[in-house]
Design goal:
The complex is a heterodimer of chains A (453) and B (425).
Chain A lengths: L23 E4 L5 E6 L5 E8 L13 H8 L9 H10 L3 E6 L4 E8 L3 H13 L5 H20 L1 H13 L14 H5 L3 H11 L6 E6 L3 H12 L22 E6 L5 E9 L8 H12 L5 H9 L3 E8 L7 E9 L3 H18 L3 H17 L4 H14 L9 H6 L3 H11 L6 E6 L1 H11 L3 E5 L3
Parallel strand pairs in A: 2-6, 7-11, 7-12
Antiparallel strand pairs in A: 1-2, 3-5, 3-6, 4-5, 8-10, 8-11, 9-10
Chain B lengths: L8 E4 L5 E6 L5 E8 L13 H8 L11 H8 L3 E6 L4 E8 L3 H13 L7 H20 L6 H9 L14 H6 L2 H11 L5 E7 L3 H12 L24 E8 L5 E8 L7 H12 L5 H9 L5 E7 L6 E8 L6 H13 L6 H18 L3 H15 L8 H6 L3 H11 L5 E8 L4
Parallel strand pairs in B: 2-6, 7-11
Antiparallel strand pairs in B: 1-2, 3-5, 3-6, 4-5, 8-10, 8-11, 9-10
Helix pairs in contact in B: 1-4, 3-8, 9-12, 9-15, 10-11
The chains are: A alpha+beta (453), B alpha+beta (425).
Chain lengths: 453, 425
């Protein structure tokens, strides 16, 4: 019955044009930047309130305060207890989520569209009138301390934490864990939380993003009603310069007795979100370690079977974030895997990508972008990025063209500018007794075993 | 909100392949989703972990698709893809820009119809290593990572197909031969044991023609052999069974599980909503009482497994604080679970409201819609059940929940797995 040739992949049909949905911008009475995207597929709405209360603005002794403040918002408001707040939201079928990062705090909520008005009222109440009762703050603090302890025994989290310390010069925020240390968290009091809210929970530089099945005028009215009186500018962030901890290639081993795998992080300081190389580096990373068929994954997983998977990533932040390769490999092949990663990085920097690799990565990136705009939440989070990083309004309308314009020459040049194999910090969390000698034999740099805990 | 109205169309081919189509042309995205009626429950003693190992082999190329080409072509098209193995099924899925629907059908049909000739020892050895690293990474090298292996062994007797975990044992995976893998494929990866769903942006007639073109000449297989072991199981465990593990974990954790009616039973909805009262959201019973008020737990997790064979499982776990006593955590958790016998109507409304938002939000993605439709077709021959999901949950009454708590959440139906830190620091 086969009347066709199965050996040939079918050709694509005709492409349906698809653009990023239109976003309306309004400015609320207080100056808050409102961005609304009307979608009418399903009766849902996703909203996100972003403001510049981030970890990067905090001194080292206050590390984790922004995260803890965000978590403690669920402790209740001037009008209701924590349980009452949760109950009021959940009766609407809404959940409030707070995410705190280097740049700021995002309070997000998704619900059915006809419940947004009530939901937004609760969201505003939680952010504008937090109460921080003592027992709720105690609990949030204990939870964060327990999370810090959990992290210290989770090899993957431990490796990421150690990598940050080895990539970034000591003393800057990026060198420390985002949610703080035992010392900084133990010092937190309800007064500190209230003080942080007073200083930094301010609308200037932030935005309210709403995507879903509702009319922009209606949303503007609701937002003005609930957030119209919110004013002020967040405390200026402490300035800092991002420098590498060292320019010398080093190997750091965190001993974990009996570990059946080694967690690896290989990298150094990368670059910032505003870099003119953003699109070239995105393509570079996809083909090098950002997709299943990337060089790294095909080598370490599909050829050698060293790992379940390996990924590389540029962490683009408002200041230079990390460039890092992350994987978890069998203890007995740890040194072999490190050697392959370093070798792949060197070859990539020396030889650049092929035209074919770049074409494949461009097509992937441009196509996948459209796939990631199916839900109101995905669209809201894309729009948030415009606010967070100060990107132009038409950014997503030209996004795919910018990806498609990247050439192999640009990728090669960007990689040479931003990846430095001689400066790699190689962090290994694993059984030192098994892996130190083979790692030393690689002769990649001084191998230092760090005390556990 | 009013009823869901996801369009659902059913078809089948002569070789037994079931087809579900669900069109939504609002965004140019299409999802192709295949469910095979094979999972860890079909594995015999000594062959555990095969269904999952086999899932890996399905990405190693087929007769007309060289190794790695499957991923390469889908990624090149701007698509995403993956697969997963579970107790009762294995699924494979791609989401693509809609003009590349045919690519996914070609790839999926090639590995359904022309897989055997492409398998070789080298690929098996490679993927065996990958799977062993997956197990090390997710189970062995991860605090609490082996909980499901331990818990399943407590809840289900050795004779039952759910006694062993999906990942299986390293020894069995080591012992897998190419012949084993081939015979597994020939037994289970047949069109009469599969559902193909296409959801999203496609032309209805065109899509059906393409399905016939690519899948029509795959031969039907033999009927699927009965499950190994003894799927029959008593509704209750009959006692409290327990395991205590001293391990490299940072905090004590108590994992409790209960036998509940299987997913195919009408009573499963009661278990599902009960789980919502217990653990969905921050005004749920366990969060409110254990985390917020009594502060004995740092966090709680609950889950009602949608399992088909004999008995499903409701799970609740609570993680304590440094230095807290596992016994106290256990008795607090048990007390709150039993307390569900005093559930009130407003709690039911809250849980349903959350379930409603969750369901509608999951339907925003073509891939999720396709996955749910495949499940309902494979499990119940009724993909339109998706549109009645909320009715099923809304029909649950507070009296049923109270009765459920009394019958199912007591000490005579309890498996308790406790993790305690090896060294208290």
């Amino acid at each position: 019955m086969s009347a066709f040739d199965r050996t040939k992949a079918p050709t694509s049909g005709s492409i349906r044009k698809f653009d990023f949905p239109d976003v309306e911008r309004r400015t609320l009475r207080d100056g808050l930047d409102l961005r609304v995207c009307k979608l009418s597929r399903l009766p849902v709405v996703s909203t996100s309130l972003f403001f510049r209360a981030g970890e990067a603005q905090l001194a080292e002794s206050r590390a984790g305060l922004a995260v803890l403040t965000g978590d403690a918002l669920e402790g209740g408001t001037q009008q209701r207890s924590g349980t009452e707040l949760a109950d009021a939201l959940e009766r609407l079928g809404a959940r409030l989520g707070v995410t705190t990062g280097w740049e700021g705090t995002s309070v997000s909520m998704s619900c059915l569209a006809d419940r947004l008005e009530e939901g937004l009222a609760l969201l505003a109440e939680a952010v504008l009138e937090p109460a921080f009762p003592e027992d709720e703050v105690d609990r949030a603090r204990e939870q964060q301390l327990a999370a810090i302890r959990q992290r210290a025994m989770d090899p993957s989290a431990l490796a990421s934490m150690e990598a940050a310390r080895r990539y970034f010069v000591s003393g800057i925020p990026y060198a420390r864990p985002q949610d703080g240390t035992e010392q900084s968290i133990e010092a937190v009091t309800p007064e500190l939380l209230s003080g942080f809210v007073e200083a930094s929970y301010r609308p200037a530089g932030g935005g309210l993003i709403v995507a879903g099945d509702l009319d922009p005028d209606e949303i503007e009215m609701m937002a003005n009603h609930r957030l119209g009186a919110w004013t002020g500018t967040p405390q200026a962030p402490e300035e800092f310069r991002v420098d590498p901890a060292t320019r010398e290639r080093r190997v750091w081993v965190v001993h974990r007795e009996g570990s059946v795998q080694s967690e690896l992080r290989v990298g150094h300081v990368g670059t910032d979100r505003g870099t003119p190389d953003y699109f070239s580096l995105s393509i570079a990373n996809l083909l090098f370690g950002g997709s299943f068929t990337s060089r790294l994954n095909l080598n370490l997983r599909e050829k050698n079977g060293f790992t379940y998977g390996v990924r590389s990533r540029f962490g683009f932040r408002s200041r230079p974030g990390p460039f890092s390769v992350a994987t978890s490999v069998g203890t007995d092949v740890t040194a072999l895997a490190v050697r392959e990663i370093v070798k792949e990085l060197e070859q990539f920097v020396d030889g650049g990508p092929t035209d074919e690799e770049v074409a494949a990565a461009r097509d992937y990136a441009a196509g996948v972008f459209g796939l990631q705009l199916e839900t109101a939440g995905q669209i809201a989070s894309r729009i948030s990025q415009l606010v967070v990083y100060g990107l132009p309004d038409d950014y997503y309308h030209t996004y795919r063209d910018s990806l498609r314009a990247v050439t192999a020459g640009q990728v090669a040049a960007a990689v040479k500018r931003h990846i430095r194999p001689d400066e790699l910090q190689i962090v290994v969390v694993g059984d030192a007794d098994e892996i130190v000698a083979p790692l030393e034999a690689l002769d990649l740099g001084l191998v230092e075993v760090l005390p556990t805990g | 909100m009013s009823r869901l109205t996801i369009p659902v169309e059913r078809h089948s081919l002569d070789n037994g392949l079931k087809i579900v189509l669900s069109q939504d042309r609002t965004v140019p995205v299409v999802a192709v989703n295949l469910w095979y009626g094979v999972g860890s429950r079909n594995e015999r003693k000594g062959k555990t972990g095969f269904a999952h190992l086999f899932e890996h082999m399905m990405f190693q190329g087929s007769a007309h698709v060289p190794k790695n080409k499957h991923f390469e072509l889908v990624e090149r098209a701007g698509g995403t893809l993956n697969a997963s193995t579970w107790f009762d099924r294995t699924n494979y899925f791609e989401t693509l820009p809609s003009h590349d629907l045919e690519l996914a059908l070609w790839l999926e049909s090639d590995r359904m119809g022309w897989m055997v000739e492409a398998m070789d020892q080298e690929k098996l050895d490679n993927q065996r290593d990958v799977v062993k690293n997956e197990k090390r990474q997710r189970y062995d090298n991860q605090p609490y990572g082996d909980w499901d292996e331990r818990l399943q062994a407590l809840v289900y007797p050795e004779s039952h197909p759910y006694h062993h975990s999906v990942i299986g044992s390293m020894e069995d995976i080591d012992a897998a031969t190419l012949d084993d893998v081939l015979s597994f494929f020939q037994t289970f990866y047949v069109p009469n044991n599969a559902v193909l769903t296409i959801a999203g942006d496609f032309d209805r007639d065109g899509a059906l023609e393409l399905v016939k073109k690519y899948f029509g000449d795959i031969e039907a297989g033999q009927p699927i052999p009965p499950l190994p072991g003894d799927p029959s199981i008593a509704p209750l465990i009959g006692e409290t069974v327990r395991e205590h593990v001293l391990a490299d974990v940072p905090l004590p954790r108590v994992v409790m599980a209960f036998r509940i009616p299987p997913y195919s039973s009408d009573d499963f909805a009661v278990a599902e909503v009960s789980r919502g009262l217990l653990g969905m959201g921050r005004s749920s019973r366990l969060y409110r009482r254990l985390v917020r008020e009594r502060r004995v737990a740092k966090g709680v997790v609950t889950f009602a497994f949608p399992l088909l064979t004999g008995s499903s499982m409701l799970l609740a776990w609570a993680t304590g604080y440094p230095g807290s006593s596992a016994e106290e955590l256990e008795s607090a958790l048990a007390e709150e679970l039993e307390g569900l016998a005093e559930a009130e109507a407003h709690e039911v409304e809250r849980a349903i409201a959350l379930a409603e938002t969750d369901l509608v939000r999951s339907l925003e993605r073509a891939g999720e819609r396709a996955d749910l439709l495949s499940m309902f077709e494979l499990y119940f021959g009724d993909p339109d059940r998706l549109n009645r999901e909320l009715d099923r949950l809304r029909a649950v009454t507070v009296d049923e929940i109270r009765a459920f708590a009394g019958e199912r959440l007591g000490a005579d139906n309890r498996a308790v797995l406790t993790y305690e830190p090896k060294v208290s620091a």
